[in-house]
């Protein structure tokens, strides 16, 4: 057993932390969130330059890492600094393109992606409520190409993406596990309409509607035979990344709360001397430590060769994080009192991000049910 | 025991329902039901409608324009209003200052100020909290120094809800610096258009402007704006807090919120079924619904124990804690129910005019913002931790 | 609205509380629990004499009450004193016999019951896990009478009962709602074998096995047409009684815990001055207050004329009590520390009883699921 | 990072498994798995088997008969033992007094006492807690007054686990009444057959005799039974506590307990389905299973951070709290799982010979008794509240 990061991972984390601490004060984040593109173009370029994106991709995709702990390292740093730049799309889409039916066909896009092109997975749909096989979007063969129709919900940075990786159904009913394929739809393709909006936790997202969108035959990233596992891999990657991001954000929220308890005085003494608050702070610390273990388990399973165990432990992690993140958010605000409710205090933005992570790639209940189902599957296999 | 309403109470409830059906403007109810933002005019309009019916100042005796209700009637009224989607009565003038003036004000003060509360001439806000004194009111630092027939006030107030709509503020100020912390405090009425007053917004985490800081620099306040005796402020403050707590459980808001939540959870689907049929979601919903069923009866029990009016004692801490927990849980489930559509933050969609700009299921636009905004419930009005301290001491003798 | 008891109810509660406080020190309870019959015969006679049993029965059954608040009053007192005597069987069986197909046929038994005869409902079965329609016991028509076969689980005072009220199936599959009937089986009927044992919370119980048990035609208490509602009424009565009993036990456990916090000193001060413990004690107090409201709601619904609403609010109450009772039990022990773990301290027996009440007439999860199902039924009706 | 066992660690684990397969008496494993009561002979027998293999004293260095393991090996060993259903090693001599003697004992003390721990000649118990000093050891009152070459000991100890099986007790006694509370304490070894010693049972709420009170009246203890210097007892006590905490999370017990629970929940039916498929029960089970999966890794992280042996610091408080919460929750679910069959309390059925007298599903006989008995986990060994105080101070600086 070995719980230490590699030298490369440690160096990357250090340089990301240092860069973000210096260049990303919270006001810059707020300003970027308020722009139409919803993130800071220069900061994004800086992150790309530091190697944050190549670290998310395997060497086969022109990256320098792409393993579970590489992803966890980058996103934990991102979480500490509350980064709203489009890292998640890069990680998920990059990992998925690298597993395409014909990976070499996507080399150019992977190159652009590693250089900072904004991309997005467009999979979640209205009424899917995180169910991975819920795909009402359809793809029909037509004149050697494909015609896509459907509605994709709350795509992160969906309005800024240079391309969307779209799941669509070739056959079967809306929630069938089989019959799904993945398509690449570059920006500017006719029939794609994008409704962008800001997010309550900062940054931007969009609903993406596809109306008779024609793409060529080679837009097929993965046909029904492989798409299921590629999609599962991408969803696992996204959930892992969000767990690590939450971990970073929790660490900071906990530190801020501890500092506040140490310094804020009421009734003539530091409020951190009140035992009821002490014990609640300890509960938060324990929740963060358990979350760190959950992320480690998930990252290790991501690198393993058993997709069932990968998905089971990632479900465990996302359920853990969903619960702990919300607990840390709510309790951090409560322990701060009124000041924790204010926009001015950075803590409140950590709290919002922590709660909202539970609304991406499946919430606590979704992953708890998933953990139960996958555990049963594992037992049946054994 | 008999949990049913008496014939009189039933008749009263029917009268309230009829009034709400006839007089509550539908666009206000829509705003409230969908969690959209209310304007100053919206609130003032609803006050005027209630005033016209004589139902605005439910705590006031008839001689000053109140309806002369008992606690059960007030509970029924507030409950029905919430269920109908009526805006909340802005409490600072009607439910807080009013009772204080009636008990501690001079005759001229009553005659001058009470009618102006009812008819909307004045919009009051509350100057209690200070940056260094949130839950610990005894440590407040704002001073008022007598100078002839004026007080000169210096200091800073914070968390002043709707202070940007108000023209007046009632205020706790320190008039004797040498007294013990809880003594030497007085209760003063300040015009917000006085020189030296500055109201600055505090934006909350959901981007809302609802609370404010109020800076007071050499503000001259006529001495006849003192309520009660000098240095009697602590007594008055405690009296006022009991009134703040009469509807503290917010049962009506929770019942209405639960109904809204169920509508959403029936409309939203997961795995091809309405979310309300998802076992884990249904269990969360059932737990809070049961808690609320119990809390309704707990609230009524407390009211029944308060014979003939007045305000409950430490029981109000119970109602505060449980009431806020239930409301926050309902809002938390509402946020969960809309799934990824909790993320979009489209400010225009929080107004009636821009409601068509919302994305996602009905009710999604305000779900996350309301959830975050209402984290305040367990902090303001005496934090839940302070309430537990009170119960530990007064009820359990610890 | 009126939250006060009637004068009769108040007087009965006072006299029961006084009698039990004087005559039922915990050592007498322990001694009785260790006897073969599992309860104190003299004390039981005393309770009967004070009118505890008639209060549980409606006038139509020769009783003096039988309403929800009568039942709640008696059982709250019983819970305060940790009574192990066979009140529950009297309440449930009495209420059910009073609703028999031919109530007058049971007048003699009801008279004996009101005079203190021990009786028991034998309904729960192995693998039923509280599901009310789970009846694998069969009843077959034979030579003008009935033949019963089956196994009834953990029947309270089942070994001492002078008669058992047995649910058995005339038709249908094991968990069908229809096809169930109720039979009266007097003690000594051949084919009934009883395996008695003590209970961990005091008192006794028994598994009752019926092997080709012949009873006459008039042993039929309720045929399939009425049995379902009679059984539902009996189960509602039992759950209500247990909720009230738990409330009484919680009151006492909370008072004991408060007293201990006030008097026990550690680190040079009363442990009740430690804020973390204070806040947890307050949580218990709130749970007890909410439980009291739940019992009131349940008792009122028991008296109402809507069986669906009765069952829904009784499910709400039993779920509330299941959660709160366990919380009060576990926290009372924890706040007492080691001494709370000892047999010698009465508190520990209150804690055991509180937890074990969740194992009778359906546990927290059972009633939560039931509340959900009944709420849905109510909505469908509306 | 790499969560897999190294080749050496794997080989070690395989060796432990082989040993357990060959040497653990099946009837002991059956008792442990079914939660039946272990006799003194059962425990002594298992100690002897471990001693024969050289694996009894896992904390001791090789020179005194220990196996020379590091923390990861100890973790693997304890985990495998629990999974196999091995009895718990009685810790008082082996894991508590042993390390104390090795660090603070004189050479003659080590040579005399350590072998007797290993070969079972002595059965030690712990004399720490007193009626007035549960979590607050500094307030202990038992005195030892020097009288020639003896100490005369007077006082009362309590919660002395398995004291009725022991022939000796290590004990904290006050040797200087004038010193500050934490000073003036010494560490003394007392023969339980000395005149003036009386061991009285404490019966716990589950009817079990496991703990005792020990009354000490003018007990004369030879002065060479003092360990370390006079008044050094507090330092020794703290050192000992760290050893008490090395396997404090009890991961192996939880993993084994979870497996037993699943077996029961698959066998028990509700509504015609195995209980394990009931959505609410499955959710409870999944939550604790996930918590345990996380805790395993947390425990390994703590071990990895403790380079080359020794005992973890405040992290052990984390492991204590979470470990006991998980174990208690598993036992709580086991009790829930057996439904009404948690009620029967058939003492004979808690022995191997009387197991056929049980009623209900397999595993039901001990479900409630174990649940109640293990409420002690969060109380003894430094209550979870004390652990939180420690964390608040040392980790969070509050």
Brief digest:
The complex is a heterotetramer, with two copies of chain A (382 residues) and two copies of chain B (398 residues). Chain A has 382 residues and is α+β, with helices and mostly antiparallel strands.
Topology:
The complex is a heterotetramer, with two copies of chain A (382 residues) and two copies of chain B (398 residues).
Chain A lengths: L6 H17 L2 H9 L6 H10 L17 H14 L5 H11 L9 H8 L4 E4 L15 E5 L2 E12 L6 E7 L10 E7 L5 E7 L5 E12 L4 E3 L1 H40 L1 E2 L2 E2 L4 H29 L3 H30 L9 H12 L6 H18 L1
Parallel strand pairs in A: 1-4
Antiparallel strand pairs in A: 2-3, 3-7, 4-5, 5-8, 6-7, 9-10
Chain B lengths: L6 H17 L2 H9 L5 H14 L17 H14 L6 H14 L2 H12 L5 E4 L15 E5 L2 E8 L10 E7 L10 E7 L5 E7 L5 E14 L3 E2 L5 H12 L6 H17 L1 E2 L2 E2 L4 H27 L9 H23 L29 H7 L10 H11 L4
Detailed description of the structure:
The complex is a heterotetramer, with two copies of chain A (382 residues) and two copies of chain B (398 residues). With 382 residues, chain A is α+β, with helices and mostly antiparallel strands. Helices cover 52% and strands 16% of the residues of chain A. Chain A has three domains: 7-114, Butyryl-Coa Dehydrogenase, subunit A, domain 1, CATH 1.10.540; 119-224, Butyryl-CoA Dehydrogenase, subunit A, domain 2, CATH 2.40.110; 228-381, Butyryl-CoA Dehydrogenase, subunit A, domain 3 (Up-down Bundle), CATH 1.20.140. Chain A has helices at 7-23, 26-34, 41-50, 68-81, 87-97, 107-114, 224-263, 275-303, 307-336, 346-357, 364-381; strands spanning 119-122, 138-142, 145-156, 163-169, 180-186, 192-198, 204-215, 220-222, 265-266, 269-270. In chain A, strands 1-4-5-8 form a four-stranded mixed β-sheet. In chain A, helix 1 packs parallel to helix 4 (68-81), helix 4 (68-81) crosses helix 7 and helix 7 (224-263) runs parallel beside helix 9 (307-336). The longest helix of chain A is centred in the middle third of the chain and has 40 residues, at 224-263. Chain A is globular, with a radius of gyration of 21 Å. Chain B has 398 residues and is an alpha+beta fold. Chain B has three domains: 7-89, no CATH class; 124-231, Butyryl-CoA Dehydrogenase, subunit A, domain 2 (Beta Barrel); 249-394, Up-down Bundle (Butyryl-CoA Dehydrogenase, subunit A, domain 3), CATH 1.20.140.10. Chain B contains twelve helices and ten strands. The model of chain B has no long low-confidence stretch (mean pLDDT 94). Classes of the chains: A alpha+beta (382), B alpha+beta (398). Chains in contact: A-B, A-C, A-D, B-C, B-D, C-D. The interface between A and D is large, with 39 and 38 residues.
């Amino acid at each position: 057993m070995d719980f230490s990061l590699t030298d490369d991972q440690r160096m990357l984390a250090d340089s990301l932390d240092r860069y973000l601490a210096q260049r990303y004060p919270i006001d810059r984040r707020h300003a970027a969130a308020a722009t139409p593109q919803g993130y800071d173009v220069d900061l994004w370029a800086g992150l790309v330059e530091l190697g944050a994106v190549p670290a998310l991709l395997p060497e086969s995709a022109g990256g320098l890492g792409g393993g579970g702990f590489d992803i966890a390292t980058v996103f934990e740093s991102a979480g500490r600094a509350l980064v709203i730049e489009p890292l998640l799309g890069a990680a998920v889409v990059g990992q998925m393109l690298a597993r395409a039916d014909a990976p070499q066909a996507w080399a150019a896009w992977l190159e652009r992606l590693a250089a900072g092109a904004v991309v997005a997975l467009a999979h979640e749909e209205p009424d899917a409520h995180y169910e991975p096989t819920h795909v009402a979007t359809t793809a029909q063969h037509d004149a050697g190409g494909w015609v896509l129709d459907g509605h994709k919900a709350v795509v992160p940075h969906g309005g800024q993406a240079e391309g969307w990786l779209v799941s669509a159904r070739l056959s079967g009913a809306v929630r069938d596990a089989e019959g799904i394929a993945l398509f690449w739809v570059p920006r500017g393709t006719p029939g794609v309409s994008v409704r962008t909006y800001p997010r309550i936790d900062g940054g931007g997202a969009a609903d993406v509607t596809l109306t008779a969108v024609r793409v060529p035959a080679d837009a097929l990233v993965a046909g029904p035979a492989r798409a299921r596992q590629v999609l599962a891999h991408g969803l696992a990657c996204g959930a892992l990344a969000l767990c690590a991001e939450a971990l970073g954000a929790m660490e900071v929220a906990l530190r801020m709360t501890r500092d506040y308890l140490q310094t804020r005085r009421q009734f003539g003494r530091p409020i951190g001397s009140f035992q009821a608050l002490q014990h609640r702070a300890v509960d938060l610390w324990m929740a963060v430590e358990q979350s760190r273990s959950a992320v480690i388990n998930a990252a290790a399973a991501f690198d393993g060769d058993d997709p069932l165990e990968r998905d089971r432990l990632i479900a465990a992690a996302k359920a853990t994080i969903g619960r702990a993140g919300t607990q840390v958010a709510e309790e951090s605000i409560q322990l701060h009192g009124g000041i924790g409710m204010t926009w001015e205090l950075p803590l409140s933005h950590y709290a919002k991000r922590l709660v909202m992570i539970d609304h991406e790639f499946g919430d606590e209940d979704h992953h708890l049910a998933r953990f139960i189902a996958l555990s049963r599957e594992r037992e049946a296999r054994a | 025991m008999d949990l049913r309403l008496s014939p009189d109470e039933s008749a009263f409830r029917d009268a309230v329902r009829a009034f709400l059906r006839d007089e509550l403007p539908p666009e206000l109810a829509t705003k409230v039901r969908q969690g959209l933002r209310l304007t100053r005019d919206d609130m003032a309009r609803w006050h005027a409608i209630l005033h016209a019916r004589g139902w605005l100042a439910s705590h006031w005796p008839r001689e000053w324009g109140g309806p002369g209700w008992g606690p059960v009637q007030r509970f029924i009224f507030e409950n029905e209003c919430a269920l109908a989607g009526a805006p909340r009565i802005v409490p600072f003038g009607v439910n807080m200052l009013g009772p204080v003036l009636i008990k501690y004000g001079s005759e001229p003060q009553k005659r001058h100020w009470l009618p102006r509360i009812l008819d909307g001439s004045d919009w009051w806000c509350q100057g209690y909290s200070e940056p260094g004194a949130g839950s610990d009111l005894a440590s407040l630092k704002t001073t008022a120094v007598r100078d002839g027939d004026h007080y000169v006030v210096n200091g800073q107030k914070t968390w002043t809800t709707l202070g940007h709509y108000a023209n007046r503020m009632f205020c706790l100020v320190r008039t004797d610096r040498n007294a013990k912390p809880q003594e030497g405090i007085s209760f003063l009425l300040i015009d917000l258009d006085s020189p030296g007053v500055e109201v600055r917004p505090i934006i909350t985490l959901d981007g809302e402007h609802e609370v404010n800081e109020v800076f007071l620099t050499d503000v001259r306040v006529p001495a006849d704006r003192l309520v009660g005796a000098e240095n009697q402020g602590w007594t008055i403050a405690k009296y006022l807090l009991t009134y703040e707590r009469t509807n503290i459980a917010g049962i009506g808001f929770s019942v209405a919120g639960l109904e809204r939540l169920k509508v959403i959870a029936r409309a939203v689907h997961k795995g091809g079924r309405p979310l309300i049929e998802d076992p884990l979601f249904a269990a969360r919903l059932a737990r809070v619904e049961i808690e609320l069923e119990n809390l309704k009866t707990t609230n009524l029990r407390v009211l029944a124990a308060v014979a003939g009016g007045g305000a409950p004692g430490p029981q109000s801490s119970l109602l505060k804690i449980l009431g806020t927990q239930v409301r926050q849980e309902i809002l938390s489930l509402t946020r969960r129910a809309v799934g990824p559509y909790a993320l979009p933050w489209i400010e225009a969609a929080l107004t009636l005019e821009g409601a068509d700009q919302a994305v996602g299921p009905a009710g999604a636009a305000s779900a996350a913002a309301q959830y975050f905004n209402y984290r305040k419930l367990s902090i303001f009005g005496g934090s839940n931790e302070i309430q537990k301290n009170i119960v530990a001491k007064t009820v359990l003798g610890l």
